[in-house]
Amino acid sequence: QVQLQESGPGLVKPSQTLSLTCTVSGGSITTNYYYWSWIRQPPGKGLEWIGYMSYSGSTYYSPSLKSRTSISRDTSKNQFTLQLSSVTPEDTAVYFCARHDASGALYDYWGQGTQVTVSS
Questions:
Q1: Cα separations (Å) of 86 from 56, 62, 64, 108?
Q2: What would the pLDDT profile of 101-117 be if each residue is shown by its tens digit?
């Protein structure tokens, strides 16, 4: 059973960088051919995909967030990390990490989500 757990600060000040880590257990983030994504849900809105890190280490980001987003990984800890720079209150959301297939159509494991509030 694969489990994902998000961790990081719940409060970030405007203009700072949001940093969240997803720790994966029960499966390796380097296993072919899985992809590891970050997704968020602002209050009262739908899910928004942010970007992914593939099993091989390649990344792809949402065009709308690409200029501010970086996803990296630590294979020794089986973790992948989201960094979102220059945050504003509009980045306030519940942030999720999840695993999916190459098509992006099948998300089979999700973290429980973590609330991040951007406020001074």
A1: 28, 16, 14, 31
A2: 988 889 999 999 999 99
